[in-house]
Amino acid sequence: MTDYTASVYLLRDTMVEMLSDDSNEQTPYVLAELAGFLIPGTRNHDQFLTELGELDSDQCLHLQSFCEAIAVHLKVTEPA
């Protein structure tokens, strides 16, 4: 059996609408996987940081506010 892949092209605004939908319980998982894909020291991370430089000031403020808000809820306790 062969694996098949397909490319799906979504508009950026469509992705935002889908991820911000109140009924989309998958959003935290998608964001966590994205974060894992953009780990520091990788080319993906470096490219991501480069692209952040392209955001306008409002977009930067939105992203900063979002990151600060979720950071409060991401307190992981190290195992003993």
- Rounded Rg: 16 Å
Low-confidence stretches: none
Terminus-to-terminus distance: 45 Å
Helical stretch tally: 4
Mind describing the biggest β-sheet? Answer: none
Element-level helix/strand string: HHHH
Mean pLDDT: 86
Structural class: mainly alpha
Strands, count: 0
What level of helicity do the residues show?
55-70%
General shape: globular
Q: Beta-strand level of the residues, as a percent range?
A: under 5%
Description:
There is one protein chain. Helix content is 56%, strand content 0%. By secondary structure, it is mostly helical. The mean pLDDT is 86.
Short description:
The chain is 56% helix and 0% strand. It is an all-alpha fold and 80 residues long.
Task: Set out the fold topology.
Elements: H1 12-20, H2 27-37, H3 43-52, H4 57-71
Task: Please describe the structure with a list of short key phrases separated by commas or semicolons.
single chain; 80 residues; mainly alpha; 4 helices; 56% helix; 0% strand; globular
